[in-house]
Specification:
heterodimer, A: about 100 residues, alpha+beta, GMP Synthetase, Chain A, domain 3, about 20% strand, globular, B: about 425 residues, mainly alpha, about 75% helix, about 0% strand, disordered N terminus
Chain lengths: ~100, ~425
């Protein structure tokens, strides 16, 4: 995601999502690079385009619930729409500097 | 959502009983081995050793694999299990059959109990095979991992058919050759066709997933699939119809190449892994994959013989079986238990609570200290016991078996700690 193109609200939401962990890899989903796009329409609707580290990720549903619940706790009246895509396929170049440190890369 | 298949996981009540019975069987296996450790120094076909082997391959390894496979079918096939009710029914039939079968061997009741016990076992395995094959039928995924799993399931059925026929032969005596001839085929198909192919199929999905490695050469799995299956088919044809002793070298080469392709696939995954530090589960798994090479080397000695005396050759045969059941299969299962069971329980307890309360990590559901001690004790067991067998030293074998007993107790403690985990209501920060 190009941070210059998103609003301050979107940046704060992205920061908020750093509390959502991938329980297996033990890194938050933002630093892991699973969030491809985050867009706020200005009318209480947040759209997220994201991926998983593998298409059949057994934790996918749990991660989605966690994202929705985390946003709901902060913004109770907001709707979160999540679109899961596998193109482009997630790879290690998508991991942030912070994530790379945790993984020991 | 495109291609998201995460709603297919079965209810934990389908999977968890397999881990409980598996852990109990592992403990019973260790007790049986400790009580009859001297049998490891006798000729390999003795009733105690056969009972121990079946407790190991069916009560321990196959039961854990059944449970894990029910959980992993959504991952490998990307579809739900065909029937959860059938899986639960199969579990109870299997528990009864395993106990019945092992008891029949233990008391050497080859003509009275064994034929009925083997028919029960056949029926329970058949139910499992039907459930998995029908799950695969509704799956859209047809990759090499899923093909390897399906092939393994079919080999399991063939193994069981042959095993049942051998058991019935004790009572009705209809085979031309001695039962040892058919038992060798039964054991080879079971170990290579069922366990090895299944581990390759599931491992080729799970290990790269846990190591976080991508862009692996799937052609190696394809090669592994063809080499091992052709090797096994040839082995059966030779055993039943052709009977040319020199063909065994070609069998060995084909299966060895198949194994090497898989090891090479995992080695690539290991080199490309994003997660550099291996947890205790992956330490076990990597040792298991490396140790797969040992039975290949030992089996070459058994085939070429090198004029080794019968007594030593018999002990090498036991070492060969040990290297597969403990060096490879048990090591892998011990490791993968720490990767899969905490997730199954974590998902069951916290799936609906994530984001609402602070949740522990799956690895925090078990004691890492117990897992580490268990790991080092297990290393002592797999080193000490074969040394004792090869040197014909009962005291060393006994000591090795005692460490396995400790391992099984520690393993059971952690398995129950995970299964009995209760949600602690901590408010989210």
């Amino acid at each position: 995601m190009n941070k210059q193109q998103i609003t301050e609200f979107e940046l704060k939401t992205l920061e908020l999502l750093k509390s959502v962990m991938d329980p297996e890899i033990e890194i938050n989903i933002v630093d892991l690079g699973l969030i491809y796009e985050l867009y706020y329409d200005g009318d209480k609707k947040i759209n997220i385009v994201m991926t998983f580290s593998t298409p059949a990720c057994p934790l996918g549903e749990t991660i989605i619930s966690n994202i929705k619940e985390t946003i709901k706790q902060k913004h109770p009246n907001f709707e979160t729409v999540i679109d899961v895509v596998f193109h482009p396929q997630w790879n290690n170049t998508m991991v942030s500097e912070e994530g790379r440190k945790i993984l020991g890369l | 959502m495109n291609g998201l298949k995460t709603n297919n996981a079965p209810n934990s009540s389908v999977v968890v009983p397999h881990f409980i019975f598996g852990a109990i069987s592992f403990f019973l296996l260790a007790v049986m081995l400790f009580l009859s450790s001297s049998n490891l120094l006798e000729v390999y076909f003795n009733n105690k050793l056969v009972a121990i082997t079946h407790m190991g391959v069916l009560g321990w390894a196959t039961m854990i694999i059944f449970g894990a496979l029910y959980q992993l079918i959504p991952v490998v096939f990307e579809t739900a299990l065909f029937s959860e009710k059938l899986a639960k029914f199969t579990f109870w039939i299997s528990v009864f059959s395993v106990c019945f079968l092992c008891y029949s061997f233990w008391v050497a009741s080859y003509t009275i109990l064994l034929p009925y016990a083997s028919l029960c076992m056949f029926f329970s395995l058949l139910l499992f095979v039907v459930n998995v094959l029908l799950s695969h039928q509704k799956s859209a995924i047809k990759n090499w991992s899923s093909r390897l799993v399906v092939a393994a399931i079919i080999w399991l059925l063939i193994t069981e058919i042959l095993g049942t026929l051998v058991a019935l032969n004790f009572k009705f005596n209809f085979f031309n050759e001695t039962h040892i001839h058919y038992l060798k085929i039964h054991a080879t198909i079971g170990l290579v066709g069922w366990f090895l192919l299944l581990i390759i199929g599931v491992g080729s999905t799970l290990i790269p997933m846990f190591l976080i490695s991508h862009e692996l050469n799937k052609n190696k799995l394809k090669a592994s699939f063809y080499f091992i299956n052709i090797g096994l088919l040839l082995f059966i044809l030779n055993g039943f119809f052709i009977n040319v002793s020199s063909l065994i070298y070609i069998n060995w080469l084909l299966i060895a190449f198949g194994v090497l392709f898989f090891v090479s696939f995992i080695f690539d995954s290991f080199k490309k892994r994003m997660r550099k530090k291996l947890d205790v589960g992956m330490q076990y798994s990597m040792i298991a994959i490396a140790s797969i090479l040992l039975p290949i080397v030992i089996s070459s000695v058994l085939i070429l013989r090198f004029n080794i005396q019968f007594e030593l050759l018999s002990r090498i045969t036991i070492f060969y079986g040990f290297s597969i059941l403990f060096g490879f299969i048990t090591t892998l299962i011990l490791g993968q238990t720490y990767k899969t069971l905490p997730f199954i329980i974590w998902l069951d307890r916290y799936k609906k609570l994530v984001g609402k309360i602070k949740t522990p990590l799956p690895r925090e559901l078990y004691s890492n200290r117990i897992a580490s001690i268990q790991f080092y004790l297990y290393l002592i067991f797999i080193i000490l016991t074969p040394i004792g067998v090869l040197l014909n030293q009962e005291i060393i074998v006994k000591l090795g078996c005692f460490t396995l007993l400790l391992v099984s107790v520690l393993y059971m403690m952690n398995v129950f700690k995970i299964i009995l985990h209760k949600v602690k209501p901590i408010e989210n920060e």
